[in-house]
Structures are given as C-alpha cells and as structure tokens.
Amino acid sequence: VGLAPASGIIARRPLPPPAPPPRQTERTMANMEVDAPAMGASPLASRVNFQLFQQAPAGAAVRVGGRLAAAEGEAYTLATTDGGSLRVLSLAGPPPADATAGGSFVEVVGTKVGTAEMQCTG
C-alpha cells in the first residue's frame, strides 16, 4: 500500500514554456500579392476544397486553394488541393506571372457559376 507524503502535498513538475508562435519571414510576405480593392468589394467567401465546392449552391462566394495551369483562352484551370479541377474565369485580366509558373500555390476568390467552374473576383 502506497503512502502519501507526511505533508499531504504531492510534488509536481513545472510545465515547459509554451512554444513561440510561428513567424512568417519577410520573404514569404513579399511573395504574397493581394488585390485589396477586389477583395473589399466581394462578399465574405467560404474556404472550400473541390468536394465542398461541388456541394455549394450556384452563386456562392468561395475561396479555393490549389495550383493554376496555363490559360485556355480567357480561362485558367485550378488543380485543387484535394485532387479536383476547376475552370476559373477571370474578370480582372490575367493573374500575376508567378501564379502560373513553377507550380506556385494560390488561393482563388470568386463565385461558383457551375459544378466545376468559378468566376474569379480576386
């Protein structure tokens, strides 16, 4: 049978200090390009993957992450993070040159217009 210490206090180890929050480097921040006027004019968009995009109603404001492929006319193809493929129609012209080069990860903000098609707003 175990006995408690005579004082009735059980010794406890102190907790380790909390981990510092992750920091973004200046280089990472410099690579991020945001079209602030377009973002401010658009409704609050839900972040979705391809599966959730397909479940969203037409006209829904969405944000989809993935990699852009070269243009097919005025539309681009977005390979989504979960293996889907969306046709992205652009309102504001072509995306920045580095968005389609080298497999850069992008987040496209827009409105769902079809089962696998969205109209870009930012």
Any overview of this molecule?
The chain is of the alpha/beta class and about 120 residues long. The protein is built from four helices and six strands; from the N terminus they run ααβαβββαββ. Strands 2-3-4-6-5 form a five-stranded mixed barrel. A hairpin with a 2-residue loop joins β5 (about 105-115) and β6. Mean pLDDT is about 75; it is low at about 25-30.
* Average pLDDT rating: 76
**How do the strands line up in the largest sheet?**
2-3-4-6-5
Total DSSP E strands: 6
- SSE pattern: HHEHEEEHEE
What's the number of helices? Answer: 4
Radius of gyration using CA atoms only: 23 Å
Oligomer: single chain
Strand content: 25-35%
Quick one: biggest sheet? 5 strands, mixed, barrel
Cα separation of the termini: 69 Å
Query: Which spans have pLDDT < 50 for at least 5 consecutive residues?
Result: 26-30
Give the helix proportion (percent range).
10-25%
Overall geometry comes to elongated
Structural class: alpha/beta
State the gist of this model.
This protein is α/β, with parallel strands linked by helices and 122 residues long. Helices cover 18% and strands 30% of the residues.
Write the layout of secondary structure elements.
Layout: H1 26-31, H2 36-41, E1 46-48, H3 50-55, E2 61-68, E3 75-80, E4 85-90, H4 97-100, E5 105-114, E6 117-120
Parallel strand pairs: 1-2, 4-6
Antiparallel strand pairs: 2-3, 2-5, 3-4, 5-6
Short descriptors:
single chain; 122 residues; alpha/beta; 5-stranded mixed beta barrel; 4 helices; 6 strands; 18% helix; elongated
